[in-house]
TrEMBL record:
SUPFAM superfamilies: Homeodomain-like (SSF46689). It holds the Pfam family HTH_18. This is Helix-turn-helix transcriptional regulator. GO terms for molecular function: DNA-binding transcription factor activity; sequence-specific DNA binding. It comes from the Bacteria. It comes from Candidatus Butyricicoccus avistercoris.
């Protein structure tokens, strides 16, 4: 192969994580199959079968292949050499997806952990993305026109699945009725601040949907699902009387967490955290009986305390005058906004002092106070101890 082949190969592998395998002899076939087969059901990963398949190929075709475990790869020949691009996964599988697939294949569900780990080794790319990469690669290196074909060995082509799909259609109307009943209970749990039941109903909804979707998902699909849950939770929070700013701030946190998530579990965890945070804030709102403006200011302080917060900045944020803010805040809480902010900061500093080995300077910065000497002064005012003394007495 020419030098540009290996340069392009390295570039694609570095950018997309998509391996390009060049198989020239029996040892190459054996090595590839040994390193990529999880179970004998993947009969194309048997070296003898792969050699036979290679011998049957013409040099004008590119094959996209999906195997029995729904692993994808793209194969074509250059003279006597076989080039395999992949493996890659077109969908992300959850634990329940793996178990469902193993059941369909009549394999032991005890393999689900191995299947999850196996799939995690490969990059996630849509088939179209992978094919576009391959087309560009072929065009640059070989300057040749190929015919693109699909070979699907996955279980989804079996008649068993068609029968199963017919059964699912019959059950769908019942599923819809149950879904709305669960959704109603989910919203009621949030409105009452019942964290435990709200999360149980959320998990129940997710399990129910697993039964009525195709195997696998994508991060984008799960982000859309998270947005739907976020909307439902926002409506429930509005019904509970939570101030709109508190709702927006909590929603924003979940939007950011979902956008930054690198896998499905992180999105699920972010959803549950959002539900718990909303329930906590609803309970705080009901118990403290502050008006909506003060509740929103308190929420803002408690979640942005590490920023440079001033009374003037708070007043501007909430479209009121500094004097009105200070007087109303003191009337309802017994503290000035500055005093409340100081207490929030020192409370968080206490947690960091006893649970971490961070320096006093670092903790001071973490809670939004740049001057560590000033931080020590404020801390001592609240606790009659310096931060170092507090850590020594209370260190876990």
């Amino acid at each position: 192969m020419c030098e540009s082949f290996y340069t392009s190969k390295k570039l694609i592998e570095n950018i997309f994580g998509l391996k390009i395998n060049l198989l020239s002899n029996a040892d190459d076939y054996e090595f590839f199959c040994k390193n990529h087969m999880l179970h004998p059901i993947q009969n194309l990963f048997n070296s003898k079968n792969l050699i036979l398949f290679s011998n049957s190929l013409d040099e004008n075709s590119v094959f996209h292949i999906k195997d029995q475990l729904q692993i994808n790869f793209i194969i074509f020949k250059i003279k006597s050499d076989l080039i395999i691009i992949g493996p890659f996964c077109s969908h992300i599988f959850s634990r329940s997806d793996c178990i469902q697939l193993l059941k369909r294949l009549n394999l032991s569900i005890n393999l689900h952990t191995s299947l999850l780990s196996y799939r995690d080794k490969f990059p996630i790319l849509s088939v179209n993305e992978a094919l576009n990469i391959v087309k560009s690669f072929i065009n640059v290196i070989f300057n040749k026109i190929y015919e693109y074909k699909n070979l699907d060995f996955s279980i989804t082509k079996n008649e068993n699945i068609k029968s199963e799909e017919n059964t699912l259609k019959k059950d769908y109307s019942q599923f819809i009725r149950e879904h709305y009943s669960i959704e109603k209970s989910f919203m009621q749990s949030i409105e009452t601040g019942d964290t435990e039941n709200a999360i149980l109903y959320l998990r129940h909804q997710q399990r129910e949907f697993q039964s009525f979707k195709r195997l696998g998902t994508t991060l984008e699909n799960e982000r859309i699902a998270a947005a739907i849950v976020r909307t439902i939770v926002r409506i429930a929070a509005m019904n509970a009387g939570l101030p709109s700013l508190s709702i927006d701030l909590l929603s924003r946190d979940n939007t950011i967490a979902s956008r930054n998530a690198k896998n499905i579990d992180e999105i699920y965890t972010a959803k549950e955290k959002m539900v718990a945070d909303f329930c906590k804030e609803i309970n705080n709102h009901k118990n403290k009986k502050y008006n909506n403006l003060i509740s929103s200011i308190i929420y803002y302080i408690e979640h942005e305390f590490d920023e440079n917060i001033t009374v003037s900045q708070l007043a501007k944020e909430f479209h009121i005058t500094p004097n009105y803010l200070t007087n109303l805040f003191h009337k309802q809480t017994g503290l000035s906004p500055t005093e409340y902010l100081r207490q929030v900061r020192t409370k968080h500093a206490c947690q960091l002092l006893v649970t971490t080995n961070m320096s006093i300077q670092k903790i001071s910065e973490k809670v939004g106070i740049v001057d560590s000497n000033y931080f020590v002064k404020l801390f001592k005012k609240d606790f009659n101890l310096t931060p170092s003394q507090y850590r020594k007495v209370n260190k876990l």
